[in-house]
Design a protein that fits this description.
Layout (H helix, E strand, L loop, with lengths): L3 E7 L6 H10 L3 E6 L6 H6 L6 E6 L8 H14 L4 E6 L2 E4 L7 H10 L4 E2 L1 E6 L13 H4 L2 E5 L9 E3 L6 E2 L4 E2 L10 E6 L4 H9 L5 H5 L4 H5 L14 E2 L22
Parallel strand pairs: 1-2, 1-4, 2-3, 7-12
Antiparallel strand pairs: 4-9, 5-12, 6-9, 7-8, 8-13, 10-11
Length: 263
């Protein structure tokens, strides 16, 4: 039986975790959750899906400093340990879709596997609050936060879905790497619910402590530099309005998130 597993690491993602897990399950993708020391309802909400598509939850202690590389390393270990055909390296605030209305994630991955490809990239569509509608920090955010832009800082941008390899793969924030990688030429799609309000952005980034040696190597530079006073909203007139998954607009992609333009 063809099997796909999404590996998610989450810290205080009670707003997002339900929609993320349900999206994967609806597309015949199983989920494995790394709970990175959450002290909100993330784990409690996720446990409702155990045995219903969520195959496991493990606790990964949170340290004084944020070491994202340790989480990436743990994900590579999980991918080598679990029995699956394909894996998806995902965050809780992401909704993954194929861009093909005829096929869900499992069906599409099976199709491209049979064609000889072993990795998939995604176009990112970033949803944000606006000047006219600045607060979506509630459980219905997907219904109310309808404005987005296409984010594409490089090609490929989110090459983080791959076929299981005999040897351990290398994983970073947006990219998987291994010998013999053959990327499918058409990108899938990802809806990224970046932040829901000013207060949510402050909680998500401004209070986080990054390890100095990690910052020195260039990781998290913009996020670490974000201050509450930098968090400004733009008008919805500068964004695209969401109508359906089949009509996501990839014209004029941005290389820098609006949130980090002045960081």
């Amino acid at each position: 039986m063809f099997r796909v597993i999404a590996i998610i690491a989450a810290y205080n993602e009670e707003r997002f975790i339900k929609n993320c897990i349900e999206n994967f399950i609806s597309q015949e993708v199983e989920v494995y959750l790394i709970n990175n020391g959450s002290d909100d309802r993330t784990a409690e909400i996720a446990k409702e899906y155990l045995g219903k598509g969520l195959i496991g939850i493990e606790d990964f202690p949170r340290e004084d400093f944020y070491y994202i590389e340790k989480i990436w390393n743990r994900k590579t270990e999980i991918a080598s340990e679990l029995n699956a055909d394909w894996f998806i390296h995902s965050d809780a605030d992401e909704i993954r879709i194929t861009g093909d209305p005829r096929k869900n994630l499992k069906e599409k991955l099976l199709e491209i596997d049979q064609q000889g490809y072993n990795a998939v990239d995604y176009h990112e569509f970033t949803f944000i609050p606006t000047l006219e509608s600045p607060n979506h920090d509630h459980e219905n955010y997907m219904e109310t936060m309808k404005w987005y832009y296409h984010f594409l800082p490089r090609v490929p941008h989110s090459l983080n879905t791959w076929k299981k390899q005999a040897e351990k793969i290398k994983l970073t924030s947006h990219k998987v790497d291994f010998p013999g990688l053959k990327m499918y030429p058409e990108s899938f799609q990802m809806k990224h619910y970046f932040y829901l309000s000013r207060e949510h952005a402050v909680r998500k980034w401004c209070s986080r402590k990054y390890a100095p040696n990690v910052l020195k190597r260039g990781l998290h530079r913009r996020r670490a530099g974000l201050k509450p006073d930098n968090i400004n909203f733009i008008s919805r007139d500068l964004l695209y309005e969401y109508t359906s998954d089949n009509e996501l607009n990839a014209v004029n992609p941005r290389k820098v998130h609006y949130l980090f333009e002045n960081v």
